[in-house]
Amino acid sequence: MNFLEIIKVVILGVVEGITEWLPISSTGHMILVDQYLNLNITNSFKEMFFVVIQLGAIFAVVILYFNRLFPFSFKNKFSIKKETMSMWYKIIVACIPAGVIGILFDDKINDLFYNYQTVAIALIVFGIFFILIENYNKGSEPKIKIISEITYKTALIIGLFQLIAAVFPGTSRSGATILGALLFGVSRTVAAEFTFFLAVPVMLGASLLKLLKFGFSFTGSEIIILIMGMFVAFIVSILAIKFLMQYIKKHDFKIFGWYRIILGIIVILHFSFETIL
Questions:
Q1: What are phi and psi of 77, to 5 degrees?
Q2: Rounded CA gap, 198 and 252, in Å?
Q3: Read out DSSP for the chain?
Q4: Is there a contact between 10 and 155 (Cβ–Cβ < 8 Å)?
Q5: Shortest CA distance to 22 belongs to which of 225, 186, 218, 246?
Q6: Highest averaged pLDDT of the listed ranges 111-115, 133-137, 170-174
Q7: Which residues make Cβ contacts (< 8 Å) with residue 101, sequence separation at least 6?
Q8: pLDDT for residue 277 is more than 70
Q9: What are phi and psi for residue 270, nearest 5 degrees?
Q10: Mean pLDDT over residues 195-202, rounded?
Q11: How many other C-beta atoms can be found within 10 angstroms of the C-beta atom of residue 260?
Q12: What is the pTM of this model?
């Protein structure tokens, strides 16, 4: 693998690490960036790579929030942290809708909706929703200020919003879940954190599913691409998560809404112009 291909993988890892956690659609960015980079790999490996690279992003969440995610304590004696276990039960409930649909219809969803038109529309529509909901919530006090206050009903509703992202590329998994949480009175910080935690089983499951479908027969260069992409995504994800949590302490999500709208228009113009040529 030559130096240029390594640079391409690093860029894709940076894009994944930033866009996976900011509510701006990693899929939309990866599709657009890939048009220009044109990584020299097979289509089947590329489809798998764009999903499995998320494992690096997942590991960043695990490292940053390990104490809050790990449900067992070994101080003095072994014990189970009841609040953490309760949170995991709610995460499992939130995972059910997207998990069921993903397992049953993954290939069908890719065939029907994995195109620039769907990505662009989802970017714009959910960008508008972010602006509208933030304007609607302006000045109001959130009902849920800590994760333990999230009920099973709210967790399921957030999971249904995640399902929208699972079906329509460009929606943004983090964007959809944050939007659903805000809509039902969850504070910005809790919405973001719950989204991070929810990503762990969802993205792990999606990655394993893609690996099983691709098989475990890799060339040497494919292994390097996969490991390098995940490593870069891991490092950048840590920075992106820290940035987002600091940003939303003083700001709302509207800037991401406007960014999504602009990106959606760029995607439409780019591919429309390409089609004409």
A1: -150, 165
A2: 21
A3: --HHHHHHHHHHHHHHHHHTTTTT-HHHHHHHHHHHH--SS-HHHHHHHHHHTHHHHHHHHHHHTHHHH--EE-SSS-EE-HHHHHHHHHHHHHHHHHHHHHHHHHHHHHHHH-SHHHHHHHHHHHHHHHHHHHHHHTTPPPSB-SGGG--HHHHHHHHHHHHHHHHSTTS-HHHHHHHHHHHTTB-HHHHHHHHHHHHHHHHHHHHHHHHHHH-S---HHHHHHHHHHHHHHHHHHHHHHHHHHHHTTT--SHHHHHHHHHHHHHHHHHHHHHHH-
A4: no
A5: 246
A6: 133-137
A7: 109, 163, 166, 167
A8: no
A9: -60, -55
A10: 93
A11: 28
A12: 0.90
Amino acid at 194: F
Taking only the tens place, the pLDDT of each residue in 1-27 is 788 889 999 999 999 999 999 999 887
User: How many C-beta atoms surround the C-beta of residue 137 within 10 A?
Assistant: 17
pLDDT range class, residue 52, cuts 50, 70, 90: very high
